[in-house]
Amino acid sequence: MPELPSLDINRSLKQRLSDGAIYRPFLEKQDIELVLDFNAGALTLVPSSSHPGQVALTTADLGIPYVACYLDPITSTMTQVGWGDHWQLLESNSWIKWIWETAHSEELVKFGIPNVLTMPMAVINDDFDTSPLPDPDPGPAVAFMGHPASSWFQSQQPVLPGQLFAGLTTAAVHADMPDLPFHKIYHDLYQFAEPPDSTDDFATRVKRSADYFAHKFTYNAYLALKQRDRFARFLRLKLGDAFELIGDHWDVHYGLKHTPRIWDRKILHQRMRRVPICLNLMKGCLETGLNLRHFEVTAYGGFMLTYHTPELPAYFEIGKECDAFRDEEELLQKIHHYLNHPDERRAIAAAGQRRVLSQHLYSHRVTRLVELLQEAGVLPKTAVVHQTPTPVPKIHVEGVNSEFAPVGPISADP
Fold first, then answer.
1. What's the pTM?
2. SS3 per-residue string spanning the chain
3. What phi and psi, each to the nearest 5 degrees, are found at residue 361?
4. Do the beta carbons of residue 334 and residue 318 sit within 8 Å?
């Protein structure tokens, strides 16, 4: 795609309309059957050809299917766009939202968002080192690579006292029933509010969705501590210099000693291979699924010890391709065990790498995506896609009526 002034996922609609003037001539000249994007960074707008005085997605106006793969929740993108405008775009039939965890997909479908497709994250195809793991570097035995999730507590988003009760109630329930996502506790179990309905007018749908995510903010802050920041502090206290925090802001927010972020991806991936135990912790935006690190650490041959999430067993065999923990006691036990059983640790790392390279690369995801779009009639059956020689995993798909919803003819939605 042509270079834009910015691919900021939060930029304004005005900027996206200006960007559409750059993308449109390019797309008109190319024989393109599908545009695949990340976090709606390349979502642009043009004056609608069929609705004078209105605008449409550039791809929709040209009849090209558009898929946005969200690496973050929808509420973490397009923040310079008013919520009403953002919600109108999400309700559009002219593009497909690839969501990476079931809980987030389910709530969007419950809210009437069309064309929601659920596939997990993956790791980019690369020249992976599959040789036996080298001897560990001297120094820390356990490392976590990431920033604190404290952005939840630095946010300027106001949380009104009346919003705390719903968020804290769902957090309390989740603590006892960790497989139950927020939307089921909020809407079904405790019935704090009704989800947006197709019979509601647009303003009501916007308000109900906004209220829902405002109530969820407190719950997300709870998850940020439950799944990530607490363990960083705990291991620093228990392991001292044997535990390394690689990332920024830990000292500012928590007074924890840390190593600056490793910007060079090659060096970062080598570090994942060489540290005896590579810890994976999730942010507060993740409820049930896996993040990028699940696939990245294992793809590059590292031994991954990760906080348990409900969807982890669907993609890795725990104890054989990675290992998981649920609390501080289990975390320390498994660190002690694997530091004293290096052969077992190496065997698990090798098995995890084999799993990812055979099933969890982006080439696998794109192959499956094209198959689904062909089955739905969005792409022609003759569409050409690079076929990998490795097996393609079965991917769960969510959409309207619990199936992938064919989008039909791609129209220029106003």
1. 0.87
2. CCCCCCCCCCCCHHHHHHHHHHHHHHHHHCCCCCEEEECCCCCCEEECCCCCCCEEEHHHHCCCCEEEECCCCHHHCCCCCCHHHHHHHHCCCCCEEEECCHHHHHHHHHCCCCCEEECCCCECCCCCCCCCCCCCCCCCCEEEECCCCCHHHHCCCCCCHHHHHHHHHHHHHHHHCCCCCHHHHHHHHCCCCCCCCCCCCHHHHHHHHHHHHHHHHHHHHHHHHHHHHHHHHHHHHHHHHHEEEECCCHHHHHCCCCECCCCCHHHHHHHHHHCCEEEECCCCCCCCCCCHHHHHHHHCCCCEEEECCCCHHHCCCECCCEEEECCHHHHHHHHHHHHCCHHHHHHHHHHHHHHHHHHCEHHHHHHHHHHHHHHCCCCCCCCCCCCCCCCCCCCCCCCHHHCCCCCCCCCCCC
3. -90, 160
4. no
> How far is Cα 73 from Cα 42, in angstroms, rounded to an integer?
16
Residue ranges covered by each domain of the chain: 13-122+362-402, 142-157+224-359
Q: What are phi and psi of 299, to 5 degrees?
A: -60, -35
- The total of other beta-carbon atoms located within 10 Å of residue 156's CB is 4
**Side-chain half-sphere CA neighbours of 308 within 13 A:** 15
Does residue 199 register a pLDDT over 60? Answer: yes
End-to-end alpha-carbon separation of the chain, Å?
24
pLDDT of residue 155: 57
Which CATH number applies to 142-157+224-359: 3.40.50.300, 3.30.70.20, 3.30.70.2580, 3.40.50.2000? 3.40.50.2000
Summarised one tens digit per residue, pLDDT across range 219-251 is 999 999 999 999 999 999 999 999 999 999 999
Q: What pLDDT, on the 0 to 100 scale, is given for residue 149?
A: 77
Buried b (16+ CB within 10 A) or exposed e, 15-52: bbeebbeebbeebeeeeebbbbbbbbbbbbbbbbeeee
- Residues 389, 274: Cα–Cα separation, whole Å: 29
pLDDT above 70: residue 203:
yes
Phi, psi at 266, each rounded to 5°: -65, -45
In angstroms, rounded to a whole number, what is the distance separating the alpha carbons of residues 368 and 356?
15
Return the higher-pLDDT residue of 274 and 159.
274
Question: What number is the average pLDDT over the span 101-130?
Answer: 95
